[in-house]
Specification:
The structure is a single chain. The protein has helices at residues 33-51, 67-74, 90-104, 163-168, 172-180, 195-201, 247-257, 268-272, 291-303; strands at residues 4-5, 10-16, 19-24, 53-56, 111-112, 118-119, 139-150, 154-155, 158-162, 182-188, 207-210, 216-219, 223-224, 226-228, 235-237, 275-280, 306-308, 315-319, 323-327, 330-331, 336-346. It is an alpha+beta fold. The protein has one domain: Double-stranded beta-helix. The strands form five sheets. A nine-stranded mixed beta sheet has the order 1-2-3-4-18-7-21-6-5. α7 crosses α9 (291-303). The radius of gyration is 20 Å and the shape is globular. The N and C termini lie far apart (47 Å).
Length: 363
Amino acid sequence: MLAHQCPNGVTKEKLTPFLTLFTPASRDHSDQLDDLIEKNREYFLNEVQKSGGIVFRGFTPIKIDEFDGFVQGTLKLEAFNTFNSKGTPAFMANWLRTWSEKILGAGDYRRYLGKTTVRLGPVENSIQGPHVEGGGLVQRSRLLTLCCFEPGLERAETGIADFSSVYKRLPSELQDKLRYGWNQYSYKTAHRLRLLDRLILKISPLTVKMQKDGYAILTGKLCPASCLVPGTDDISIQPWSFARNANPQVHRAAKEIFNDRGDFTQDSTADALNMNWDLTDSEGNSIGWSEEEQYILFKTIFREAHLMDWNKGDIAIIDNVRLGHWRMNGVQGNRQLVQIQANPFDALDHRVPEEVVPEEALA
């Protein structure tokens, strides 16, 4: 593809219709990323709004303890971690994360390096389910900022797809279910609840239904299955594909589309996490979706994928409503991919208005 100079000091290249790469125009500019952004911050953030995501590559790498300052100082974004929205200190946030992994039965072992900065989980011989970050919660982040301090040893890319484009390519019946439906996620606890578990769950966003055997069913608040991308009328699906009931369909679709990646397994997190993902109406009544519909959804997403092959020092800013992502299979090595979520987003404020819902769509 042809590269374009814009603004001064940086070269612009379209990797895909939804992802733009910026590199230094010359070696003299490789250590001037902060200055380039401070002078052209509105331009770069508008590029995210316009296309979906941008990547800075080839600039002098920053250090892990500088990343928060880069995001909140240079970019002037508001850090907002979906799973730590109160800004709990890292040691407590990690304790709560470990606790939740034990009670829910699984985790991908991401860990807080600070109140806002999170090191993402390790690569496995599996392909994750596609998702928006925090998609199981109504309150989540609008933007994702990521920095690669060390790429994986082999492959270990991040799959990225434009979920508004995916929506347009789905069969009309599935479009209606996802456009007007709601995601409902429910879990069965991995062990009987203790007193401490019950106390912590009282301040969680989950509804707790105790069973006679001491286990519990934890149900999250209904989340719109699709949202309008802020600033546009584009409808973007909002999956969070870590459910055990959908995991076989993720694997089946991935094996078909990514048929050159060897014999990879199902995602271990979704296999271990006893979570069910259902589509419902606004009252929480199931409208159902079949395994075949799940397979069609994941196959369509994977067909739209760009596999982001990380370079050391890469910094990416991703629209967490329009673009979805997932971790590809590979070899971990010393991979260090760090994330800061930014700018709070309320999915309820951007759902497709109910007044335009045709009755037959939810029949």
